[in-house]
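Page 37, continued from 36.
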């Protein structure tokens, strides 16, 4: 009996996970930092961590990290978002593109100077145009010399 219940639960979990593998819609319940939010999917009791794909925000203990988190929280906290799920990362977070009222949240962050566009093997990242606009206008973290989070983590480790 227990084995049958376990198999049923695993099958249901597989179906639920498969359904969430493409997209999810829910309410933002918490903002951890400038590139991680918690979304409670419609009909669910608990929230899931979502890492915004295609960008990298300053670490929370890094210069401009708190400002990036606070700007993101002011913009999306308690709002309904759509997440186009792409993967899961090593921290077990869902990774994906997030839209608020149809607008790409990653583009919003980068163009305002709260994050870098992720660069892949010398290729410009998905928000390279928005990053160039923010740099040119010296918005946000571009108002003063900025160290990208990857270099910061390499030198100082994570804030945890």
């Amino acid at each position: 009996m227990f084995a049958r219940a376990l198999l049923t639960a695993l099958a249901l979990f597989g179906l639920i996970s498969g359904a969430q593998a493409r997209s999810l819609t829910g309410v933002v319940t918490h903002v951890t930092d400038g590139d991680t939010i918690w979304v409670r999917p419609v009909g669910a009791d608990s929230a899931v961590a979502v890492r915004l794909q295609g960008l990298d925000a300053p670490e929370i203990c890094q210069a401009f990290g708190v400002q990036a988190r606070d700007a993101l929280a002011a913009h999306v906290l308690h709002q309904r978002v759509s997440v186009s799920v792409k993967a899961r990362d090593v921290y077990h977070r869902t990774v994906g593109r997030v839209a608020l009222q149809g607008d790409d949240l990653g583009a919003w962050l980068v163009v305002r100077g709260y994050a870098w566009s992720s660069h892949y093997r010398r290729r410009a990242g998905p928000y390279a145009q928005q990053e160039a606009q923010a740099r040119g206008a010296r918005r946000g973290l571009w108002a003063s010399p900025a160290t990208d989070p990857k270099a910061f983590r390499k030198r100082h480790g994570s804030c945890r």
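Residues 82 and 102 are 8 Å apart (CA to CA). Flag for discussion at group meeting. Residues 1-20 have pLDDT under 50 and may be disordered.
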